[in-house]
């Protein structure tokens, strides 16, 4: 018996039917160890008070004790490809200039002029030096003070440290992270075991094929939680049940900062026993938005093959052609399942060989009742060819549907369905007389994990 | 409208390069964004900096001074620094390979 199985697991009951681990037994390719992990230590089943999502005080606590302490994803390295390029990262009431200072070197400065405090840079862009638009105080891109007009009036600053204050920076998978806390754990320790689990998916070498954002009228955690369980598929996305093993999903937690859901695809929901293999194949191609093709036209299920195998083999061939590399060693699971990791507190990344989805949920400035929901799609390109330019961020207006963003394809209508819940959850929590939510023991365990990790920071 | 020859060969402006010209007393910046040519007034609408040498990416020109980005297609700025668009001019290619601009 492994060490992990000796630990009491969260929830004891599981849905009937083939579990994810059963499906792995059916792989013809050697299953990598990270997929065989199946761990969700017991966290309890108590109700959780709605104050965590709707109270101003809780937001203030997060502002004071969570955001200043966690590693947080700011942007992609490819967003600032040249020395002097910078991205303005804003979190609650803080503003940071994330800038490239060398071929593989990044710095992150507090975005505030040391003269009168104006933000130094208003938007993403490129600079040879940072010149404050108010009076012209200037720093080089490494944060060294270069001067201010009418220097005769500032001799009292000669003895002061006028370098721009910095925060910690780290990179993984082509993402740039920052941490405000000088004494934080290393990014490497914080991310573990994410890099190990993504060893087959070198995200630093993917390019950003789409980037869409929109304000959603709910707390950032309500947004994040909409993507942390597959239980809602039955009611919210019923059209995908013919090819989604929703209730047979596996949920894992790894330490405080990483959790995972694996939802088998290419198999029907255990709620729909009557679906044929041909229906599963047709619907996954037409509706999932994540397969190598979005049309079932011309696809006939060969006799004796399962939809799961047929779709995996189609993906293997078509993804392989797109990336110019053989995917012989990819499991069916990796070729089609929804394997979604959460990096605490607000970033979520899918595995996959082509078209990896990334979600981020940022508080909408200092407003605890709304958030900014972002989706990126990371794509691969043929080996040996020039890396394509990253997509520019498409900011939808609050009244626009996600399906109005053609670059995210079939995901748009799915997000619109999720969107129909997010603001409604916030509203309903505020109206709640019960004042608490009751989570499914297993299927919603990652949400409990998120809140228990938040508490570790708030109580530290 | 007057079609005015810039006397600049399109092939002399490389990708992401800007070239300033004075035509009819107007300072105009010609920009090559991924092979498409655009012409805009060479004066930032934020604090009147010259835009020559501003970085071009994805059809956007960034002011070298404070970084305002302008959409070269429409002249519209992004962000909060200014709400005033840059004046844009239509650009076309003459038979001799020179770029020509439509002046008002």
Features:
heterodimer, A: alpha+beta, Rieske Iron-sulfur Protein, 2 domains, eight-stranded mixed sheet, seven-stranded antiparallel sheet, 14 helices, 20 strands, 24% strand, globular, B: 104 residues, mainly beta, four-stranded antiparallel sheet
Spell out the blueprint of helices and strands.
The complex is a heterodimer of chains A (460) and B (104).
Chain A: H1 3-6, H2 20-25, H3 33-36, E1 48-49, H4 51-54, H5 56-66, E2 72-76, E3 85-91, E4 94-102, E5 105-110, E6 125-126, E7 129-131, E8 138-140, E9 145-147, E10 166-172, E11 175-179, H6 187-191, H7 194-197, E12 207-216, H8 220-225, H9 233-236, E13 250-254, E14 258-263, H10 277-287, H11 307-323, H12 332-336, E15 338-343, E16 347-350, E17 356-364, E18 367-379, E19 394-395, H13 411-431, E20 436-437, H14 445-458
Parallel strand pairs in A: 12-19
Antiparallel strand pairs in A: 1-20, 2-11, 3-4, 3-6, 4-5, 5-10, 7-8, 8-9, 10-11, 12-18, 13-14, 14-15, 15-16, 16-17, 17-18
Chain B: E1 2-9, E2 18-23, E3 26-33, E4 36-41, E5 56-57, E6 60-62, E7 69-71, E8 88-89, E9 91-93, E10 98-103
Short description:
The complex is a heterodimer of chains A (460) and B (104). By secondary structure, chain A is of the alpha+beta class.
Please describe what this structure looks like.
The complex is a heterodimer of chains A (460) and B (104). Chain A is of the alpha+beta class. Chain A has 2 domains: 308 residues, Alpha-Beta Complex (Naphthalene 1,2-dioxygenase Alpha Subunit, Chain A, domain 1), CATH 3.90.380.10; 112 residues, Rieske [2Fe-2S] iron-sulphur domain (Rieske Iron-sulfur Protein), CATH 2.102.10.10. Helix content of chain A is 25%, strand content 24%. Chain A contains 14 helices and 20 strands. In chain A, helix 10 packs parallel to helix 11. Chain B is mainly beta and 104 residues long. Chain B has no helices and 10 strands. In chain B, the strands form 3 sheets. Chain B has a 4-stranded antiparallel beta sheet with strand order 2-3-4-8, with no helix packed on it. In chain B, strands 1-10-9 form a 3-stranded antiparallel beta sheet, with no helix packed on it. Chain B is globular, with a radius of gyration of 13 Å. The interface between A and B is medium-sized, with 13 and 16 residues.
């Amino acid at each position: 018996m492994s060490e992990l199985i000796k630990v009491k697991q969260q929830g004891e009951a599981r849905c009937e039917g083939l579990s994810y681990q059963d499906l792995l037994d059916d792989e013809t390719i050697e299953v990598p160890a990270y997929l065989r992990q199946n761990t969700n230590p017991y966290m309890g089943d108590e109700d959780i008070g709605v104050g965590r999502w709707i109270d101003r005080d809780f937001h203030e606590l997060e502002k004071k004790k969570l955001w200043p302490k966690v590693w947080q994803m700011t942007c992609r390295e490819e967003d600032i490809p040249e020395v002097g390029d910078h991205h303005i990262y804003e979190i609650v009431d803080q503003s940071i200039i994330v800038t490239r200072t060398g071929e593989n070197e990044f710095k992150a400065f507090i975005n505030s002029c040391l003269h009168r405090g104006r933000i130094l840079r208003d938007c993403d862009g490129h600079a040879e030096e940072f010149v404050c638009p108010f009076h012209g105080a200037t720093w080089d891109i490494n944060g060294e003070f270069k001067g201010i007009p009418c220097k005769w009036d500032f001799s009292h600053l000669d003895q002061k440290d006028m370098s721009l204050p910095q925060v910690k920076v780290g990179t993984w998978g082509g993402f740039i992270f920052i941490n405000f806390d000088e004494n934080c754990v290393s990014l490497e320790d914080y991310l573990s075991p994410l890099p190990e689990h993504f060893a087959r998916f070198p995200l630093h070498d993917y390019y950003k094929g789409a980037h869409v954002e929109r304000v959603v009228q709910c707390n950032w955690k309500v947004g994040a939680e909409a993507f942390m369980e597959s239980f809602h598929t039955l009611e919210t996305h019923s059209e995908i049940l013919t090819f989604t093993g929703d209730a047979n999903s596996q949920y894992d937690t790894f330490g405080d900062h990483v959790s995972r859901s694996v939802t088998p695809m290419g198999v029907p929901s255990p709620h729909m026993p009557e679906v044929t293999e041909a229906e599963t194949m047709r619907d996954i191609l037409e509706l999932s938005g994540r397969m190598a093709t979005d049309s079932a036209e011309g696809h006939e299920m060969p006799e004796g093959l399962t939809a799961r195998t047929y779709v995996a083999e189609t993906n293997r061939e078509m993804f392989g052609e797109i990336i110019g590399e053989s995917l012989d060693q990819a499991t069916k699971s990796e070729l089609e399942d929804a394997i979604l990791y959460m990096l605490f507190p607000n970033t979520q990344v899918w595995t996959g060989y082509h078209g990896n989805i990334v979600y981020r949920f940022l508080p909408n400035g200092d407003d605890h009742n709304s958030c900014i929901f972002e989706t990126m799609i990371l794509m691969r390109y043929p080996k040996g060819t020039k890396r394509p330019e990253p997509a520019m961020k498409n900011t939808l207006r609050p009244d626009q549907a996600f399906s109005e963003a053609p670059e995210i394809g079939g995901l748009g209508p799915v997000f619109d369905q999720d969107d129909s819940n997010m603001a409604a959850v916030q509203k309903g929590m505020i109206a709640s007389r019960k004042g608490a939510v009751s989570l499914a023991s297993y299927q919603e365990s990652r949400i409990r994990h998120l809140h228990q990790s938040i508490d570790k920071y708030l109580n530290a | 409208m007057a079609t005015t020859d810039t006397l600049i060969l399109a092939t002399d402006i490389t990708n992401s390069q800007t070239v300033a010209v004075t035509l009819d007393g107007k300072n105009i910046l010609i920009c090559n964004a991924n092979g498409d040519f655009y012409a805009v007034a060479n004066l930032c609408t934020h604090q009147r900096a010259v835009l020559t040498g501003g970085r071009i990416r994805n059809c956007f020109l960034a002011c070298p001074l404070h970084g305002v980005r302008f959409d070269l297609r429409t002249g519209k700025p992004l962000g909060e620094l200014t709400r005033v668009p840059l004046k844009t001019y239509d650009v076309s290619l003459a038979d001799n390979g020179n770029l020509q601009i439509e002046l008002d």
